[in-house]
Fold these 4 entries.
Entry 1:
Amino acid sequence: MLDQYIGVVITFALGAVIVLGMVSGSMIFGARSTSRRAVKDEVFECGNPSSGPARGRFSVHFYLVAILFIVFDVEVVFMYPWAIVFRQLGVPGLIEMLTFVAILGFGLAYVWRRGALAWD
Amino acid sequence: MGLIEVGIAGAKAFAVLMLVLHMSAVLLWVERKGSALIQDRIGANRANIFGVMPVNLGLINTLVADPLKLLTKEDVVPAGADKLLHFLAPFLAVFPVMVTFAAIPFGDQLVIGGHTINLQVAGLDIGILYVLAMSSLAVYGVVLGGWASNSRWALLGAIRGSAQMISYEIAMGLALIGAVMTFGTLDMQAIARAQGHHFFGLIPAWGVFYQPLAFLVFLIAGIAETKRVPFDLPEGESELISGYFTEYSGMKQAAFMLSDFAESVVVAGLATTLFFGAWQVPLLFRDGFHLPGGAIVALPHLAVVGLQIASFTVKVFALCVFQILVRWTLPRYRYDQVMDLGWKYLLPLALANMLVTGIVIVLLG
């Protein structure tokens, strides 16, 4: 049973080594200059002096998308086990899923009508 | 589990990781040359080894000279950045994408010296769940990269990117459910084998013929997940410099670039496995070609396996090239259009596809 995960473990180990080597490559082999450090370490803002912290406020709409994602993605996860055994369940299984999707669809229609999906 | 099995698994893992890495690098060159062709210019042509090569090899430039150049660049971490997260973000952008390929089969069985080798790094019976889990981790690279940089452009790109990627993940997951219902399993090798028969003994029974709508939704959502044109709002260079990786240099920046291409390869690999018969070659069975009319062209085992691996590679590469063509043909969407496409078109379409699939399966018994 767990034998099938040997490949995953090995891939993780190999992948981690390759990617770590790549990401730290410039830190090891890269050039390093000490002159004019203060200017060099500035964040890039098209040449303007940067003012205030960058991590400011942003539109609440992005939070909304994240919450909607959690709601709908959990529903999608519920559907996978059903999709596997669907052939054994037959018509009753289909009716149950139709009910489930109807509720989900109602939720989507509600969110849509309330304007949560609209961007301006 | 003997030492030999572990060794074989290690060799397969290494081969697959190298396949993803090198295909991404070759794609980078194909993209440069292809975009040059589309835009009627010459493209990458400045590589020659001490002026002795008969032709200028742009491919050498992309595969060898560019990584070497990036390796020697200074690794700049901006003041005020979170140093640990700044380092971790490119790692988290590439790593999950590369390990995704562990569940994708690149051939049937290879029988050699009494060993039967399943040509798949990990024969997971929940392969599709593994792929979805890994590919959804890639969003952390984008978010952390933008947040850690302490830059306005990077943060804007990260927020846009995360909202876009999670939106299209729902449509992607729902589209795959249609395919899962058709095959009745999450095991990707089993899905590949299920596509081995033919309609009328001639047309291969690939998933795309059963689930054309699921393929369309999956491909669009997949391209959106790779954050490339026409969905490149997280990095949109004319708006956000380079978005979430504005403050990266050297190999870290290359890692972000690579993750984009590796994601293209993974999307193509998934589409190949689920919708284009994985490693299946039309009319090729385990003992050779079965031509319509009953004639059989027998082939040795190694030739069959070789053809299968070649078939998988060619299909993946063709789908990658298709993504590049899309990228250089379409202009960038507006942000509201991107979100509308994901939530108002692809999501209901994928739901409808799932229900229609269910009804058809029940009607056919």
Entry 2:
Amino acid sequence: MTGPMRRTWGGVAKRVTGAWPPAAGWRATGRKAAATLAVAVALATASAPAAAQGRDSIPGVALGLLYATSSVPALAVKPFTGRFGGAAIASQVEAIIGRDLHNSDRFDVMDSLPADMAGGGQVDYQLWDHLGAVWLVTGQVEGAGDGFELVTELHDVVYEHVKEQGRFPIPDPSQPGFRMAVHRVSDQIVKWVTGDPGVAATRIAFAMATSDSTKQLYLVDSDGENLRRITNDPGLDLSPAWSPSGDSIAYGSIRGTTPSRIYMLDLATGKESMVPPVGHDAMETTPAFSPDGHTLAFTVDNGRTSRIYTYDLQHKCCAKAITDGRYYDLAPTYSPDGKRIAFNTMRFGTTVPQIMVMPADGGEAQLLSPYQYGNGGYYTSPDWSPRGDLIAFHGAIRAGTYHILVADMKDAGHKLRQLTWEGNNEDPSWAPDGRHIAFVGERRWGFGLMVVDVATGRLRTVVAGMRVSTPAWSPSLGGAP
Amino acid sequence: MIVRRFAVPVLAAMLVVAACGKKQPPPPPAPTGPTPEELAQRRADSIAAARRADSIAAARREAEAKAAAAAARARAVAAARTTLQEMVHFDFDKSDIRPDAEAILQRKVAILRASPDVQLQIQGYCDERGSEEYNLALGQRRAESVRKYLEGFGLSDSRFTIISYGEERPLDPAHNEDAWAQNRRDQFVITAGANAINPPSTSGN
């Protein structure tokens, strides 16, 4: 959708600068496209059950294209200006914000406009209205001491007024905190418009094999920049999980011939510590923090049974099993209120892993994934949305082909939606907005870290051509550099 | 120089004179033979020498046989070590022991019974399909199912540890069915008693 629109806009923009008024309405193009999409959605939804029977193999589950939001408002980014030395970085700041707003999937963004669209200090609302913009972002970068300040305004083009404005300190681009400071402005703009914070000021952790045949943890900014390795150990690190504060990451690691243990990495100091193992022979994997950060849940698997344990991080004690002995459970994830845990289980057979939900201190579990006796099914890697309404996991729709699925927790039947349709897709992890999901995508071109927007179904590739695994999206890093 | 040139002819002349002086007819030999005592002694000596030669040869044969036995045992121990380390393979998404794996495990059982000090780590591995977290669990079950099998033949559980590497460290990094079949496996590492491996006795004692 957005690609063609932006190209259309580029053509119009050139005509605009040459001769006013523009002949073609950008907005009309957008409306037509939106209408076409609506029809396509209706057709796909109507024919989904019939198609599902022939093509897909989850019995009784109708999978179809069904997006909550089929169109998003247009937002224009007026070319940023600068003064007191700020002009030098104005276009760099503007480019980061434009891309962040595009990645938010909440707008059709018109950015990278010709510099003479900056005009003077006044905003010509009629011009922007003609161009189809509903929102307009302006920015002026001012030199301030060692760094800069960004003065930004959000204009409501329809009602012709400044809706919000703010002044944000931005370090010099040579400083490590520069990009994150700009991302925070993007998140503020999203919040001004939608009331929900954006997720530009976040990072995604994941595991990846190194050339020395170890596996280490890496971090990448939400926009794919700033990729870097954060562990340096002789082991195989897997399944990172962020603490709610964003200060530390828990993960499983196999060191030599010692079964997997749970480690914690303090991101500020780089110091690693091991969570005391429950048994000497069992492997411990898939950690998850409770939303208050006081408890760590993880899997203890001795080969005979696999139980979910909790560990008291505040008192550094009191590891206890919260699932019973004869079961084979793993991969816990907390509900945002901390009262429940979704997890992966082999209770229905070791080759048909399913997703269940139970109270956070153990107890009766209820099936979430669409299991029907004798019909197989493979659902793993659950992650509970920070909004609480959805649980994401991945499943084999056809044998050997994995897709990202979300189950609706508000709906008694746990209505299931499929979010990916191409290649293989594994290990979903929610962004703090409860709207975006990072996952490992396998395509013809290779493996990559990808993001899907649950609301629009838009896909984007954050890191391409790398064999990433078990991604974990950070909480909002609004306060961290 | 002058002294040497002069000395050589004089010495030769002296040798000629000496030789001429010893030339006499030899006396007729006395008609003597070995006495019976001497003959008995020679026979005894000869028998003793033959016995000594025999015992040396016997000792050599014994040493050779010993060396051969030691070599055979070393070969048998090496073969036993190889058998202990021989990996077993699994079907896709399964941790059941296949018939071909059972044959291999039976050979391990015989060696482990004869070698009570030997301890093993059983390492479970998977192919790359499926999630990594699921595969860690699957590898653990593959290691455990072999441990359970070995314990079923009366071997103490204290002799085995298990570890899962999931889909890490594939034997064959290719992305095809042959590679996957190679990678779905248990490996065996001798963690104690590597110098106390006894091959299974074949004669029954």
Entry 3:
Amino acid sequence: MNLDSIIGTFLAESRELLQQMEDALLQIEQSPDDPELINAIFRAAHTIKGSSGLFGYDAIVAFTHVAESVLDRVRAGEVRFDSELIALMLQVGDHLGGLIDWLADGHDLADVSVETRATDAELITCLKRYLEEAPTAATAPQAAESDHTEARTASGETASHHWHLSLRFGADTLRSGMDPTSFLRYMATFGTVAHVEPVLEHLPALDKLDPEACYIGLELAFVSDADQATIDGTFEFVRDESSIEIIPPHSPLTAFASLLQLRQDEGDEQLQRLLRCGSLTEAEWLQLQTPAVVAESDTTSMSTFGSDDAKSDFPTLAAGNTSPASVATTDNAKAAKAGKEAQRGGGDSNLIRVDAAKLDQLINLVGELIIAGANTRMLAQRSGMLEMNESAETLSRLVEEVRDSALTLRMVQIGATFNRFQRVVRDVSKELGKDIVLQVSGGETELDKTVVEKIGDPLTHLVRNAMDHGIEPAEQRLANGKSAQGVVRLNAYHEAGGIVIEVSDDGGGLNPQKIMAKAVQRGLASEGQPLSDKEIFNLIFEPGFSTADQISNLSGRGVGMDVVKRNITALRGTVELDSKLGQGTCVRIRLPLTLAIIDGFLISVGQASYVVPLDMVEECIELPGKGLENQEFLDLRGDVLPFIRLRQLFADDSTPPRRENVVVVRYAGIRAGLVVDQLLGEFQTVIKPLGKVFAQVPALSGFTILGSGAVALILDIPGLLAQVTHNDNRAGLASSQLNQVNHLRSNAQ
Amino acid sequence: MSNASQTFDQGTAEQYLTFSLGQETFAVSTRNVREIIEFGRLTPVPMMPASVLGVINLRGGVVPIIDLRQRFGEGETRIGRRSCIVILDVSRDEVQQTIGIVVEAVCAVLEIPPQDIEPAPTFGSHIRTDFIRGMGKIDGNIVVLLDIGRVLSLEDMQQLASTAASASKQSA
């Protein structure tokens, strides 16, 4: 197995865990005593520590160990999660994230920068404070335990002061990327391995030896102050397939008796090993021989983490045999918890990590399948065979379903992205000294993974803007009759084959007059230009509108809004802004769901076929025959509809047919007609990218292949509308007497 | 190392695909040639320079087709019975692109030994000299060895495309 890929998994998992930890930390602010959340945080830290140890990342282990100890005290109820500790833990998470990133970049942990080291030390100092505090509470149970210990000495307790670990690694240990020695290395971080006895009995003869299998076992004498859970945790990753027995110091003799019984197949040698480890003395051994103790051994309290799998190479105790005796209550609680965790783990195991490239390949193939299917369907129709036709119809319906489910594979919920902003809002509101909460809704809305990855930056910008410039200071809010706490909302929903993401706030809103004045000053609009409020607001997305000095005198936003717009446009999306003075602002981002396959509407002009994305098509009408020769708009049931003659735009010099049709398209509130020859109906369109050669053509967004094998062009409706309205304005037609036309055009600018 | 590659250069004659266009014979290295297909249905792409004839469907992929004569600033290539499309793999500046060219007829695959290749003339040719890799002598005839990466340079064509697009914008 490739070590790089395992490390990759480690890095990915650690990041996920850190994210879970952060989420839980942010939630815990609301409910500080929720044991589920505390456990989630602890688990995350613990697992990171464990897996870092396996890879020998000692710096991470050492650091996380301190954090984990603090969390353990929180779990034990000795320390409470206050805002200070939450902030500290968030920093801990960030620091670990930094270390993980450092590793991901292929650096060595030994080479981390001086600042990182300083942060490390500083955080450890802060954390240690929590460990020192309130020692009384901690010692009390310990004392009680030692009393208990003394009481037990009489009843056949062993003399050894160390833990005894009996490890038989599963045959697949090496194959799953684990190295038995790494456990020793890791254990050395929280204790001393006093004695090691290798167990080699299971090693087969050379001719039967599988070089990839693990045959080794270890008997360890381990001196450590760590608790059982920590030691257990060491073997978390191999527990399922290995037989791991851990006997605490001063355990009753019966524990060893049952261990010996468990390792019966190793006979006397195992006993000798126990003696050599010093875990058992000769005298104790002799005592063990007495039948009374042996009989008792079946009901021992030894903690067993052996596999239940009967096929395992090593015999293990049946699960039922481990009955609660002395350490019963705590162990039981632990077992119950472990069960819970296992259940949770069961949920996770339904997920499969898949390389995104494989998904892309699948989607490409589905694309080919759709093209081939369309071809078959066309041939079937041409053949006139009824049965053939039916079969082809069934086939294409199935292919359509395959397409839909293939596409959903790439879909992820936007919730995770939204939740990241809890942290942003928390940090920025502290920074600004404003009390602001983030409300998230529609987190279950799904969209393409590539889109999700790219939407983060623009969203961050918008959220920061809303907090910085949108939400007023508390006094002003109170004076305006609002609650002192500002609200920023993130919302997502599906609409017309796309997704809409809203970033809104209940702040002061934008003042259209001021923006207009600024726009005129910047030369983006002319004085007295009749613009609606909405058009004015959207001026702030214009490049060159915003500069830093404007924040104050505009009391609005606008810093870098053109960058936001550019990012969104690159995703084939649009952005618009709505605001009510004194009530708040809402920025609405519209994005396509996916970038690979769309439902299209096929039209033709002359010899050429074009595809319009179906979700933008509103209706189709016949072009009224007369009186429109020099006109660029028509009357659609009383409304003015501007239109574009594709034949003219694409300089197609074929003669137009007697009857032409108009496809009415709508995009982002703009409606326009496209004059075409023929309407050919719906068509499943696999988008083939334009490629470098055609990237500059403004009216096209891609190619697709028709069932006949011919290539059709996919029209870029937003680009087309923008370009045509632009042309009209240049030609000086902007001052049309029809207000609505004017409206539409300036909107598209 | 450099010695070895030199002897390789001198010792092995590279193979060239020759084809005719107008009155001339051109050649491209067979290393660039992916396949030759018959001239088929072409979809024109609007707002592109005349040298970009359009696109074809090559087994599910969309491949742009270039008219070399128009690229050289000459008239249209006549499509006849022997016309073919030569599909070329062009890589330039580490960008790999598949592009087809229309030729009037494909002639042969020939080996041209390095000693039979003359450097490109600095003048006297009606084709931009940076398009020419050299002049090959075959049986007393001269063929123009094209630097196909340069001829089908993406930057150049993009530039052409954007000027064409803005020109059609102006006229619209």
Entry 4:
Amino acid sequence: MDAFKILEIKKSVYEGNDARAKSLRAELGRDKVFLLNLMSSPGSGKTTTILRTIEALEAEMRIGILEADIDSDVDARAVAKTGTRVIQLHSGGMCHLDAEMTRQGLAGLGTEGIDLVILENIGNLICTAEFDTGATKNAMILSVPEGDDKPLKYPVMFSMVDVLLVNKIDAMEFFDFDLEALRERVLRLNPKVRIIPISAKTGEGMDQWADWMRAAVRHCKES
Amino acid sequence: MHELGVVIEVVRTVLDFAERNGVTRIETVVLQMGELSSMVPKYIEDCYPAAVYGTKMQDTTLRIEILPGNALCGACGKVFNLLRNAGGCPACGSEEWELLGGKEFMIKEIAAR
């Protein structure tokens, strides 16, 4: 019998997913499909924000939605009512989506003729930030009731996103939320991030957000 | 839960490596984790049996090596451990430093034949 030998692997655990994400991103770029990965805590208003985003953009581009949840299809039903193409993904208890699950979701949705896909990631500020989904851009929502100290607690998430939507600003007066303190904390982690205060409920700030999406999708078409 | 996802990724990577290198039997898997990585070694160990269940790695042993979270002081050049010095240089007190390591999460090697 052969003796055991030591085989060196020396590979980052994230390397496999990173490679799969990179190739998915390249394919989406070739197909001119813009994929936005939207992350946040549970209850921060991801689904409402998506519904408002659909309203703002559906006349000018074809949109598809990937709804990821541990269980249930309440979010997908809410989106389906708008007539937008949507698919529900169940992660089976897993707290994040990776590039392979995203690829399967996109295949299930069908990206033929679609300009913009929004992936509503699982409500979680930790694991979702550590797994590259292969998305073209990453966005997160922080809602006012969650507090302005969240960048201190979840720095990985705040340092990897391209856009931060600060939602529920209509409720600002009821909470001790310092937008300037938040801005300073986020910019220290991520100087390039675009911060857009919104209220998905009243529509405040949604124009700026829709403009950002328009420009990003156009850039994807032209590059 | 957080750890389970990454352990499944470890299993996937090792099985793939084994297949490509003609490894028929794996005895031990050695991981390297930084002190500053977001993983808890105890939880990794706890979910390992579930992640390898029913795979060729079912009877393997997991070993975890911890790598220190060290930084280089930007003011005086001293190398120090961030966790044991609460993020400040023990020699000059500066909080300006460059991270040298400690966020790793690597599959180091396997013992196999």
